[in-house]
Structure formats: structure tokens, C-alpha cells
């Protein structure tokens, strides 16, 4: 029985979203944002030389050049000799966030408008703040604003250690993020707090509460740990994961897929750094059951490089991923399909620190060379379902 591996390289957009003008980073619309093309251009110009050098080199993902031209008509200077399936996918959900992107890739566009906290200070309504304080057992919260998660630790980490108040912040995404020190505040206490706050903000149609534990001292600085946990609102209707499970197939989640889908339709989760996730994916190529679905998310493109506007780092991570993929592909079995895509953009050359609305690449291995052109996010779910031979739901059409 054929197996499917659906791999999301988080935030690797390729421009061209028809509705980019409706999404913003600060005051600037996302029109023209193009994560991969702009990274490739910076590399070609010799401006992304930290820990790597020269033009962006992605020989395994050899369909990227073609995908980017399909999405945005841009010549990013990437070679255009695709050997596998290649195309570009367009999102319709009214959000450029991770759950919107993943649910739609899994066949379910978001049917509601997310609630976003305003970019004001305070950002949160007083009654929500009061409830968070009550649940945390503190007299106040710190932050209460839009912020970059690393910058706010530098600003408020010391005050947090002194007062014991949780650092609460948001972004252009529909999120409520709580940062707290793993030792002085306590990791379990932070996770319990986030879990308790989640239903309050989900009721407001805020997509996620994210626990952002950190360690360190005011003197040495603060760093976030791997114990991040997302408490997401459940998908509005059954997704590819549920379709597969209902058909009696095993569903493996690698990375934060379990969190994004509120564990709906998922049998087993493997987590870690992207390097560890690559090992998990590699193990699953060897071990995943016939007929199974493996759904992976590699988040560090987004969290370590996109939001941090680090072009060299992003290019390095793309080249690392590409070289790891080269070791993985020859071990796929006959009948396997491995599909690579992304959930939104996060152009590290763009203004602000938020995601960018973009089309995303669709690269397929194991089904021969074909140009699928422009497809919709939901077509990915329909295609995976067709490949696995299971019934699909919703608006997607298979491109296989
Ligand atoms: O700046 P950090 O804390 O990494 O937060 C980013 O991560 C969140 C989830 O992807 C986004 O909403 C953005 O705010
Ligand atoms: Mn994402
Ligand atoms: Mn992000």
C-alpha cells in the first residue's frame, strides 16, 4: 500500500499571493514579499555570507526554480531543471498564520475571521488581563503589547524574574503568547497557565495560546527553550489526518503538527529541534507502516530565521534541509509520495517581524516529473488522499 510523507517547511513562501495587499507588516502591505526569491537574490549578491557563501544552492529541491516562476513570475536566479512534480499553491483562508496554512493544506480552509489583538498598549482587553492574573496568581502581567519574542525577553526578562509576573504579548498573528522563566516561574506552572487561558481566548476566535518558556539571567541574557507548547483551537471540520485515521491508516506527526491539529486524527507525535525532526522523518521513511501518513513541520525556518529577519541563517537552513533531503529520498519505497510545501511566507528581507502572505511551493518526489501549475492549498490534501486511496472531503481536487 502506498505511503505519504507531507513535509511543511514552515514559512518558505515563493511570492505571488493574489491577496497580498490585504495583509500587512506594520503599515507596509505584503505586496511583493517573496521569501525564497529575496533570499536567493541576497545570496547571489554576496549579502548572505554568514556561515555559508555564494548563490543559494538547492540541488535536491530542483523544482524550486520552476515553482517560484509559476507562483510569482520572478526569475530568482534559481536553476530551472525540475526532475519531479512541481507547482505553486494559493491559500484562501483569511489568515497568514500557521494553523490557517496547515488546516487548509489538510483540506479545511478557515471559515471564520480570526480575532487579532490591536497594536496598542495595552493590547489585551482588561477583563482578559484580569482573568490571566487570577489564573497566574499574580497582581499583574508584563508586556501586554505586540512584540518580537526574543526582543521582549531582553526588555522584560529581568523584571519578570523580580516581580514573578508573566510576560504576555502578541503579534500580527491571532495569538496570545506567555513567556516565563522555567526555573523562577516554573515550566509546569507556565504550561498549566497557558492551558487554562486557552479556552478563554479560543472563545474570542484567537487561534492559539503559545507557552514560551525561557532560561538565563539578566547578566548572561535569556534564551528560549525547546519546551514551547502551542494550545490551538481545534480545526473546524475533519482534516486529512481525520480522513486517514477514519480509513484505518496510521498518522504520524513530526514537530508541532500535533499541536496545530489539537491532536485530532493523529496517532503518534515526535518532537525536537529541526535536526532531531529530520532524524524522526528519516526513521519514519524506514519504519512507517504501509498506507500510513506522515505529516511533518520544520519550524526553524520561521522561528529562528524568518521572524528574526536573518537572511544568511535562513539560506543556511534551506541548504541544510536540501542536503538532508538528498540522503532521505533514495530510501523512499516504490509507491511512496513525499510532498514538500509551506504554510505561509516570512520574508527575512521584509519590514516588520511578522509572516508575509505568499504562495507556497509544491514539490513532489516519487510520482515522476510533472508541472501542476498553480493549485490551491486544499488540492494538496485531496492529492495525498488520492495517493493513499482514501476518501477526501471539502473543496480540494487532486493534481495527481
Ligand atoms: O516573535 P516570536 O515570539 O517568535 O513569535 C512569533 O511566533 C508566533 C507563532 O508562529 C508568531 O505569532 C510570532 O509572534
Ligand atoms: Mn508557520
Ligand atoms: Mn511564525
UniProtKB/TrEMBL annotation:
It is found in: Cytoplasm. Keywords: Cytoplasm, Isomerase, Manganese, Metal-binding. GO terms for cellular component: cytosol. Its main location: cytoplasm. Pathway: Carbohydrate degradation; 2-deoxy-D-ribose 1-phosphate degradation; D-glyceraldehyde 3-phosphate and acetaldehyde from 2-deoxy-alpha-D-ribose 1-phosphate: step 1/2. The keyword Metal-binding applies. It catalyses: alpha-D-ribose 1-phosphate = D-ribose 5-phosphate; 2-deoxy-alpha-D-ribose 1-phosphate = 2-deoxy-D-ribose 5-phosphate. Its EC number is 5.4.2.7. Mn(2+) 2 binds at residues 302, 307, 355. Isomerase that catalyzes the conversion of deoxy-ribose 1-phosphate (dRib-1-P) and ribose 1-phosphate (Rib-1-P) to deoxy-ribose 5-phosphate (dRib-5-P) and ribose 5-phosphate (Rib-5-P), respectively. Belongs to the phosphopentomutase family. This is Phosphopentomutase. It comes from Thalassobius vesicularis. The gene is deoB.
